[in-house]
Amino acid sequence: MKTNTLTPELPVKKSDAVNKKESSLKIDTLTPELLHKMNAYWRAANYLSVGQIYLFDNPLLKEPLKLSHVKPLVVGHWGTTPGQNFIYVHLNRVIKKYDLNMFYIAGPGHGGPAIVGNVYLEGTWSDIYPNVTQDEAGMKELFKQFSFPGGISSHVAPTTPGSIHEGGELGYSLSHAFGAAFDNPDLVVACVIGDGEAETASLATAWHSNKFLNAISDGAVLPILHLNGYKISNPTVLARIEHEELEQFLRGCGWTPHFVEGDEPEKMHQLMAATLETAVEDIRQIQSNARTKNDTTRPRWPMIVLRSPKGWTGPKVVDGLQIEGTFRAHQVPLLVDTEHPDHVKQLESWMKSYKAEELFDENGRLISELAELAPKGDRRMGANPHANGGILLRDLRMPDFHDHAVKVSSPGAVNGQDTLVLGNFLRDVTKLNQDQRNFRVFGPDETVSNLLGAVFEVTNRQWDAREVKNDEFLAPSGRVLDSMLSENQCEGWLEGYLLTGRHGLFNSYEAFIRIVDSMFSQHAKWLKVCLELPWRRKISSLNYLLASHVWQQDHNGFTHQDPGFLDHVINKKADIVRVYLPPDANCLLSVFDHCLRSRNYVNVVVAGKHALPQWLTMDAAVVHCTEGIGIWQWASNDQGSEPDVVMACCGDTPTLEILAAVSILRKHLPDLKIRVINVVDLMKLQSSSEHPHGLNEKDYDSLFTQDKHIIFGFHGYPWLVHRLTYRRTNRNLHVRGYKEEGTITTAFDMRVQNDLDRFHLVQDVVDRIPHLGSKGAYLKQHMQDKLIEHKNYIDKHGQDLPEIRNWKWSDTQ
Q1: Which of 388, 535, 636, 669 is 20 to 30 A distant from 780 in Cα terms?
Q2: 209 CA to centre of own chain
Q3: Whole-number pLDDT of residue 27
Q4: What is the dihedral of CA 365, 371, 376, 380, to 10 degrees?
Q5: What is the DSSP-derived secondary structure letter of residue 474?
Q6: d(CA 253, CA 290)
Q7: Mean of the per-residue pLDDT values of the chain
Q8: Residue 313: its pLDDT value, please?
């Protein structure tokens, strides 16, 4: 192949590329030589993109294209790809000109061919995957692997160097971008947003992230809204509203939008180059003003709206139907298979329109004058260390959690509010890491409600919008991001923060963490794939603290009662998920210290905020949490003999009710042998063959016996425990938990309505053990009487019985 000339190459169409709003821009930013080189680089990226979607062989078209050169199953998405290729080459230019520390987040769905192709052109792909060389053989491998068994997905994924964002599910790109920018003052995150993606609730909310970005201590996010007009088969809303309305919307969200619109390559290159320079200069000016003058006034950050045809430069018409600029360009614009053999020539013509012989040498290597357009080393967007956050990760400075221990003279002797105690520990974590700026607390305005307010003794909520009298804890800089009432936003911010090498936690009401079910799933899948990629360094774990839980919603009622996140979490791979339900504050401290130190997990911790009995000293709590499950000997009386019944519990409220039931049984049936087991680490119930934390069969049987009845009080839905234990030998398992009963009622009545209360539990034991005889019958009758007494009392007084409110543990009650 000859490589002597670079021609302007693509046929052009008339367009009004220069919007009147942008008429003052310099439209000769690029010299003719640089313009032609950049357009050629764009052609190279487009060529590689088409090749990835279609080709199995003959990557440089050195022989006439045949059907045998095409993949037997062609899968991919072309529509967004040429626009993203266009953006990437222009970002490369400003990175080199301004020496920017920048990486790229690809929001528009399955635009994988664009990012993979560009990372290959800049050399990063071959650095990571040496088998995909920068020559003809490597190009063939690049093409074959795309959407091919054993290869890579059609969207940007963990396998893609330079990515922190899974492109398979839409909506989170801008949230991830801001999470990455927090505490990274020299970083610019270029976030490309598809106009279909812009219709999701998460993305629509994320526009307001600019009210939380501190120009002094944080980096910058440059959103690029890519309007190509269509989703899968429908137009997009933002592409169909009037220009003025779109501009007003974006300005109303606090942005300064710059428009790049058209379809004529040369004019679009010049306009994009000028617009990007304007945006970069605006960012630099905003940051310089803020940092030199300590000006914390909220700026109007720049953003870009790129309007270009869907499937730009692809087939114009196929079988009489318009393709370019329509929804038909979304996926595979040209079917090439045994049923459409005539399309082989059309595919060949399409690929040859990019004039690959001018772009790659005889050996398939990008010619040097084009390769020079890409940044070098870590400035390449595919090689940016922030996109492989484990490289930058530093350990947290951790306080000694023992310093926050609740003093427990005997089990149940004192009451405590578990999350209130944890708040003091998190305050110290925050303080110790202030100068490292690598730890944040996230939540949808629930930090105070969940009793973690002690953190505000050492930091503020980060808030860059207007403040008024009587606001609390608001400041332009802070370690807490909880001033936005959006679980999706908080989750996205935290994920972006973790993926770029920092630490944090997400505190939420238990019922409403369900809003991010899908986001959690995507992050868990990301971590699972990363474990299979040696070059992906481990990141800090995603830590959830779920408070205001199902058993503490006496004033909120039924709407706030849903422990189902636990069921959802355990569906994910066992080497990723961990679930902890500490029974008291000391156990919560031990568990959370472990979680904040851990890597590459999703840790879910459920804890209450209401005053409940405290059971274990700190030393005992550390041992118990390290084991994850154990017999509470001080509550049991089966030492030296086989138990008649096993009373097990998992969660703070079930632990209280199980122990209350045990105290009643031991008082009225002193000869009954009871073993009490408490579970902190939920996954201990699963077999060791299914989860690394699980107990082997011998250890499980040693605790729970092989044949005794097990009365199990559980925090969540009862069937989850059955699901975890269905392979165990002992089938005499009877789980009491939440069964979708609840209303505005007292705390104890919530337990009564779901049969988790002490009175129902005692009856359950009596029913399971027939040899109790008349003593058991009288006790059962007594429990039924207590339930009636309870109901009459709360109906009259609006609070629980004094014996419930004032109950203390005793094995001789």
Answers
A1: 636
A2: 16
A3: 67
A4: -90
A5: E
A6: 21
A7: 94
A8: 94
